[in-house]
Every structure is written in C-alpha cells, then in structure tokens.
Amino acid sequence: MGKIYSWDENPFQDFLLILMMGGADISNKNLEVDIYVRFLTILEYFLKNEKYNEFLDFEIKKNDICFKVIPKNILTAFWLSGIIPQNFSENILNSNKFRINNKEYRFNKKTKRLTYKIIETK
Fold first, then answer.
1. What residues have CB less than 8 Å from 108, skipping those under 6 apart?
2. Which of 16, 74, 114, 117 has its CA 20 to 30 A from that of 100?
3. What tens digit of pLDDT does each residue of 20-46 get?
4. pTM of the predicted model, to two decimals?
5. CA pair distance 80, 26, nearest whole angstrom
6. CA quadruple 24, 27, 33, 36: dihedral sign
C-alpha cells in the first residue's frame, strides 16, 4: 500500500512529477541523461561527500498504466525514496543492509525493493 503524495518531501519524485505534468514520457531514452544530471544536482545539494554520486544507478520503465523508477543498488533506493543518509560506508553496498535510528533497511538485489523492519530498543 502506498501513501498519499506530498509535495516537497522527496525532490526526486517532485522533479519527475513536474516532467510528467508537462507531458513528458520519463521512460524516453532521450530524457535519460537529463533526468540523471538533475538527480546528480539534487544529490550534490544534500550530500556532503560527492564521491557517493557515482553510486546513482537506476532505470525507468513504463507499462500501460504507470512508470517505475527502479534502483539498482541500496544507496539509489534510499535516495529515490527520499532518504538521504549522511553517515554510511561503502560496505552497505555489499551487505545491502543499513540501520537508521530504530529501522533496519534491506535492499533485495533480485526484486530491487527496499524494505525495513522496526528494531525494538531496550
């Protein structure tokens, strides 16, 4: 189940929505570089360390009723979900797990889905 869209919570979603409202087919290969560059610009605004920009990797697919933005790694999955952690190490790319506050996130490489479970604190 999804949630109601809220403007200004996720800059990646906001940008894609603006494109779609203007009639753009965001899965069009001619737009791919423009979308990628805009996403990098968004990351540069939020990230303190630009070296992580190299992990931005995604594709956009379209079917009859919707577009899907599919992350190819855990960092991109976080970013596209509007979660931009500042303190992480590259080893999360290998483990595909990351803990933030009381949530442990996992990225499934096969399904390309980011899930989380709440960690009970004592």
1. 96, 114, 115
2. 16
3. 999 999 999 999 999 999 999 999 998
4. 0.87
5. 15
6. positive
